[in-house]
DNA sequence: CTGTTAGCGCATTCAC
DNA sequence: GTGAATGCGCTAACAG
């Protein structure tokens, strides 16, 4: 039924070793016999069996990718960066959603390892000791993508979330705002949550602005929770003049909450956030935000992984990609009001 | 270095066949020896090699997924449906972006087949004879996801794009509109392009409205092209009162174009489209649209594929999932104007 | 219930 | 340049 390398060898009148050589582009084959083999391959419709090759060579040319949720546009964008570079280096990717659930993450890491991936890209929630333990049992390189482990034991690619948040809040401050609220993510989340919150606090502190707990609401990164948080701020006696949101999605929720209340952005409230998802430039007013290079985070982490897999020397196992403040129309100076 | 089934056998004092049995949950093992084996596995940190298993059993428990672009929210949503169901049936997915490029599609189909996937899910542009040819060389089941082939030779899961468009235009007509423009996709694209355009024409015809070529603009499905198209309509002497857009994204572009021109939706123009991406309810006014069940398209096609892979009987190899008109705020009656 | 024996399809020495 | 032999780690009969 299925045609093997052996069939091709017989058809071409050579040994299977020779067929293997031409299939793998080994130069030590006479052009003439190479041609014969190609013809036999064509005639028989031979298709190399990558599983057998993987067993024999101990390389599968596939990498595992653990991702929180591919339907989240941020991760989808990162994934595209990963796949493009993987493709460029002739790797395929096995994609596993793990929803930032530790248990699920550990499980898929193991099945990926069983499948003998040549490397692993991990995007997840907190990197716990159990994760590190699972990584240790792996005999292939691993890189953290859009996350880091606390001790910096695992190669990683990410942005500096704290500074990104700091910069965002700072542009608010530079516009004269001093009553600045924050819509945060959960503080359990080290990157998008805790670090961005820290950046907020530091910016305030640096400007000599008192931190007030009732100006911070915890959301879940989603649009709806941005609306909820903003509703709360709207109910305050002493309202803020600006809002810093940990993510664009919540910021957009806040904008719509404000507008639905008959007020406007940035006239009544300035809004800034971090991410720069596509939607940020597809709202009115267009959202001012600190862009994180999603595609590049994916691309660079995959590139790093290819180096590790080829045992090439890498001098920067911990890459911090630059972020950039994109001034659009959701922030104005207090004076203008 | 790597511990094999043979090491475990020695450690447990049994044969490798027995180890294989307990690893594969074969009931024919005495609980006692099963325990011994588990302990040996634990002690040695044994991890089954799925590649070797795949070679021996001729099953890899992985399926290939060809997708146009994972960073497109529609496909990302479908992909999530696919992966959830795959996961449920203990399959992993190899994800390949092919950007609707025929050449790239054929190439990844072949590498997926080389990797011995147990099945293939195909999302792409046009399904050409070359695609069918590639499918024929496969010895594993294939299902088309969010596409169909013209002759209906390959199992598929999709919505009825023409009727979805028809319904959309019809709700415009029921609201009293007769000057209805369309922002279409390329007519080369059978589903999102041609079929939706046909639905538009049929709805007009059915209502006795003359089809006018200058009321149709071709976009590329993206936000910006929606803006462009709307600019054109705004420049017409005899302007339409309603716009039907083939996709939500272009519709949102149209809305913003209108608003940026100082006009409003739905007061000056009613807008309707097809898709129901998340963003549709995150614009002001919220977009009225015909929803296609993205997640379900993915889930159902994967479910169908599992049945095919298990050689179970399926009576509907061509599934059409229902669409549904979601009335929001971007459409109003002409009388109200 | 358990062990023995063959391959699965290919890469890879090692000779020639 | 080319061929013969070996084994990658596991499943799957087949015996017993």
TrEMBL record, chains A, B:
<protein>
    <recommendedName>
        <fullName>Catabolite control protein A</fullName>
    </recommendedName>
</protein>
<dbReference type="Pfam" id="PF13377">
    <property type="entry name" value="Peripla_BP_3"/>
</dbReference>
<keyword id="KW-0010">Activator</keyword>
<keyword id="KW-0804">Transcription</keyword>
<dbReference type="InterPro" id="IPR000843">
    <property type="entry name" value="HTH_LacI"/>
</dbReference>
<feature type="domain" description="HTH lacI-type">
    <location>
        <begin position="3"/>
        <end position="57"/>
    </location>
</feature>
<dbReference type="GO" id="GO:0000976">
    <property type="term" value="F:transcription cis-regulatory region binding"/>
</dbReference>
<keyword id="KW-0678">Repressor</keyword>
<keyword id="KW-0238">DNA-binding</keyword>
<dbReference type="GO" id="GO:0003700">
    <property type="term" value="F:DNA-binding transcription factor activity"/>
</dbReference>
<comment type="function">
    <text>Global transcriptional regulator of carbon catabolite repression (CCR) and carbon catabolite activation (CCA), which ensures optimal energy usage under diverse conditions.</text>
</comment>
<dbReference type="InterPro" id="IPR006377">
    <property type="entry name" value="CcpA"/>
</dbReference>
<dbReference type="InterPro" id="IPR028082">
    <property type="entry name" value="Peripla_BP_I"/>
</dbReference>
<dbReference type="InterPro" id="IPR046335">
    <property type="entry name" value="LacI/GalR-like_sensor"/>
</dbReference>
<keyword id="KW-0805">Transcription regulation</keyword>
<dbReference type="InterPro" id="IPR010982">
    <property type="entry name" value="Lambda_DNA-bd_dom_sf"/>
</dbReference>
<dbReference type="Pfam" id="PF00356">
    <property type="entry name" value="LacI"/>
</dbReference>
């Amino acid at each position: 039924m299925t045609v093997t390398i052996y069939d091709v060898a017989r058809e071409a009148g050579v040994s299977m070793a020779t067929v293997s050589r031409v299939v793998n582009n080994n130069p030590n084959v006479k052009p003439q016999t190479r041609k014969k083999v190609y013809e036999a391959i064509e005639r028989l419709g031979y298709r190399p069996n990558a599983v057998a090759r993987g067993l024999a060579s101990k390389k599968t040319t596939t990498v595992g990718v653990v991702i929180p949720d591919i339907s989240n546009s941020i991760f989808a964008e990162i994934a595209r960066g990963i796949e493009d570079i993987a493709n460029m280096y002739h790797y395929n990717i096995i994609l596993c959603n793990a929803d930032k659930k530790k248990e699920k993450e550990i499980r898929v890491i193991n099945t990926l390892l069983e499948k003998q991936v040549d490397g692993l890209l991990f995007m997840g929630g907190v990197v716990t000791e159990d994760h590190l333990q699972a990584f240790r049992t792996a005999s292939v390189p691993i890189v953290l993508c859009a996350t880091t482990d606390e001790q910096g034991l695992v190669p990683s690619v990410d942005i500096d979330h704290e500074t990104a948040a700091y910069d965002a809040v700072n542009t608010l401050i530079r516009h004269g705002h001093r009553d600045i609220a924050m819509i945060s993510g959960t503080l359990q989340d080290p990157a998008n949550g805790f670090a961005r919150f820290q950046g907020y606090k530091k910016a305030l502190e640096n400007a000599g602005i008192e931190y007030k707990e009732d100006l911070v609401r915890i959301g879940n990164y989603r649009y709806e929770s941005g609306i909820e948080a903003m509703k709360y701020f709207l109910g305050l006696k002493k309202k803020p003049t600006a809002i810093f949101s940990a993510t664009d999605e919540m910021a957009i929720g806040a904008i719509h909450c404000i507008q639905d209340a008959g007020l406007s952005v940035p006239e009544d409230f300035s809004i800034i956030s971090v991410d720069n998802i596509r939607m940020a430039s597809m709202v009115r007013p267009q959202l001012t935000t600190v862009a994180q290079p999603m595609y590049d985070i994916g691309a660079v982490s995959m590139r790093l992984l290819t180096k590790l897999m080829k045992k090439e020397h890498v001098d920067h196992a911990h890459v911090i990609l630059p972020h950039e403040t994109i001034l659009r129309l959701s922030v104005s100076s207090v004076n203008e009001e």
